[in-house]
Amino acid sequence: MSTPLSIAAELEHRSDAIPELDRGRPSWPIALASIAATTLVVLLPIGRSDLSGLMWLWAMALAAVVGLNLWVPVESWNGLVVKWTSLAGAIAFLLVFPLGRTNATLVDLGLFVVFAIVCLGLNLTHGIAGQVSLAQAGFLGIGAYVSVLLDTGRPIAVAGIETTLPNLPFLLAIAVAGMTCMVFSVLIGFPALRVQGPWLAFVTLAFNLLVFLVLNNEAGLTEGSRGLRSMRTDLTVFGIDLFETRNYYYFCLVFLFAAAALVWWIVRSPWGRAFKALRDNPARAASLGVDIRAYTLLAFSIGAGLAGVAGALYARLIEYLEPRAFSIGQSFDFFLATVIGGLGTMVGPFIGVSFITVLTDRLRFTGDYYRVWFGLFVVVMTLVAPKGIAGSFNQLRSWLRSLR
Amino acid sequence: MTERAVVRVSNVSKSFGGIKAVDDVSFEVFDGEILGVIGPNGCGKTTLFNCILGQYRPDRGRVELSGQDVSRWPPHRRANAGLARTFQLLQVFESMSVRDNLKTAAQEHIGSIGRRLFRSPDLGLGATVDRLIERFRLGHLADEPARNLSYGQQKLLDTAMAFVSDPAVVFLDEPAGGVNLTMLGDLRDRIQDLNQNDGTTFAVIEHNMEFIFGLAHRIVVMEQGRVLTVGTPDEIRDDPQVLEVYLGG
Amino acid sequence: MSTFIQISFSGLATGAIFALAAVGFALLWQTAGAINFAHGEFIALPAIVMLLLGEDRPTLGIPEWVPGIGGTALGGPLPELGIVLAFVVTIPLAVLVLGYLFKVSLVDRLLTPGGNDIPLVIASLGLALTIREYLRVEFGARPEKFPSVFGTDRWRPGGIAISADDVGVLVVSILVILALQVFLRRTFLGRQMEAAAQSPDTARVLGIRVDRMILYTFAINAVLVTVAALLVAPTTHARWDAGLSLGLVAFTAAIIGGFNQVRGALFGGFLVGLLQNWSAYYVSSAYREAIPLLLLILVILWRPQGLFGIAEERRL
Q1: N or C: which end of chain C has fewer CB within 10 A?
Q2: Any idea where the domains of chain A sit in the sequence?
Q3: Which chain B residues are closer than 8 Å to A286 by Cβ?
Q4: Which of A18, A20, A262, A284 to mutate to test the interface with B (most CBs of B within 10 A)?
Q5: Using an 8 Å Cβ cutoff, are A43 and B163 in contact?
Q6: d(C-alpha A57, C-alpha C220), whole Å
Q7: How is domain C2-302 classified at the CATH fold level?
Q8: What does pTM read for this prediction?
Q9: Class of the CATH-defined domain A103-390
């Protein structure tokens, strides 16, 4: 009698049988409502810096989109329509919103995009694989400095050695920045692998502090606290002049979409399941053949690599690189933002990043106390809604489903 | 059932602080048998399993799988070599669906980590997993997150996960614990089914005497970290030493 | 050579404060499994509170005739007494807020037995941020000069410069540490607490009220951080961001020394103090924190239970 595994081998090349779902009947009103609401959310803000009168309409449209996502069952045809229109709307929003904005706003949007990449990476490391990393800002910094140093061909002096670094094309510099971070992450992740528990948190904490010390003190390498000039007057990739802020924003957006697609693909793959097993129950996972060390390193290094790439993009968005931007406090911010957004969801990082970028301006009414409220919000959230905003959203949706 | 030893434990000892939890234990698990492991509380059964499966490093002794010395291997490597287990405390992956739990348990045996990323997300495991879901009567719950299952259902899932990778030997630690009577019969049927139809070897720690005596071909009795005696259920039942160990004498 | 002794002495004094901080952190971890990332802020906060109580601040409305507290300007007739009295008053406040309230509202709710300690990590990070930012907004404009309880005398026995502050810090710290050790080893309550920390289940079986012991641990920690605040604030000035670096030192010292043994954390604290001073002088002032950090990574790699800790194998 053939064993289950040999049968599996036979079936390996066939697609997997998914039981036929009852998807219900498509409903035109819901589809139309979904498209209409999403279109309003995307189009209304175009060219307007202050919505005033139309603000209510926009808010209602946004509420409608959120409501539809909550209410319509995901497995039905309607659910598919709602999901895809929302996704298309989100992408369209990111593409269209920058039109007609000032450079300052574009830089802010660019920061949102770049930090979203950081939090996407952290979400993979922590949200999916359950590993606490407090070094994302450190990797952001390494990526930023490495890409700038490799891109300008400037002479550096460190530990008595003086050399001039090669001048790499921008894209290559970005790749090297990402890979450097992956290498570092493997090096420091390795000590923490011998034990489970909070050790990676402490090792990453120590690492970020060390990175900051080096960035701040090795003036021969990084210009220290004076700041490293990172802006270039010519930045042409594939014939497009990226010095123009709007072009650069779209350039960053491409990386964001790529990062999101990569993370989504990994989570859906066998790696994703292994990561979740690592998060939910490492001892059980090991007893089932999951190589805990390897997967911890993988999750950690992918997150670090994404932060490195983000760093390379970040460097050109601002004029000067300062070590202060890559301190341990910033790492805490990234971590808390990812947690607030909702761990383990695709949407979570974007929500969380809003709290540390675009919303900080909108919520100025709290005055200087913004970060106090931010901290309190985190504390209250762990008590009341530990799954974060997106996670609570999912819980709400399941609850509504159970009411039907 | 043959007389060929698929797992051989030789002179394994493990101490914690000053306490010898496992003291010079040696025995064999024969290919195709169901081996019961019984003994009063604290006699070292779970510690012994932990030593055999890699959660603990024994202070002394050897563990062999089909002649290969696996004493120094980490748990996941032993699992991939064919040693599967369940834990005394129920352990499933709460956030994942039943189906995903089983896929996770099965996937690590297919190919290498790198290759697995680039194949189809299900690695062709769909049919295997579905078959196991049917065998354990979890079909209606296949897409539910494991945390939504009842204790008994989680227990079935936990046990199913040990089998999905077609292991050589399955070590069950108190599989009947906390399971109600109806499910108990189910569980025994599953184990016998797998043993007789698939030839899977079992080693089972149990406190529920009725359950294990009705299931096992041979039984190992432990006491204070040592092996007291090994025999068939009938032999054990009649052995005055065993009686004394359980009743205090 | 005399420089070496000078630096070492000063390092021991700093290390004594680190030791107090590390012990508190380690005690909470050991007894309650609580990893408190806001530990540093728990030191910074009492420092500010003592400063507030010890000097004349209109907002507090303390009448001028209250001796030692009201109407005392820094540098005035009795600043030390003002601070000492403030310290005495702050201790019960700390025990209430940083001990009892912290335990009941956060730790108990977030630390489930057999569960994850990550929610508490997150909550304590959030708490640390909240406290730090609040202190920054309210008091951050300029670093507050915190008066030293021991005065500012300096002596030169045998050509080695020693400050009264260093001596005072060392003496007080050692007294506190000794008192703690005596309490834990010699008193009945202390031994119960140790038993509860080593093996909660056995302790419960023996009739020890483990939960109450844990509460006492939180109280002791609150006292320790207040003492540490009193001792460290003169050097760091009561800064809003002092908490961050103090907390990091506490973690580092506790882990290096061994977080599951009180004497491990003590050793770790003194070691980190010495290392920082030595590296500041002999290597580079900028990298004074680097050596302990590197040691931390090495310890986690080779001996995660710390230099003095006991290896724990998880019972499954």
Answers
A1: N
A2: 26-97, 103-390
A3: 54, 74-76, 79
A4: A284
A5: no
A6: 57
A7: ABC transporter involved in vitamin B12 uptake, BtuC (1.10.3470)
A8: 0.88
A9: mainly alpha
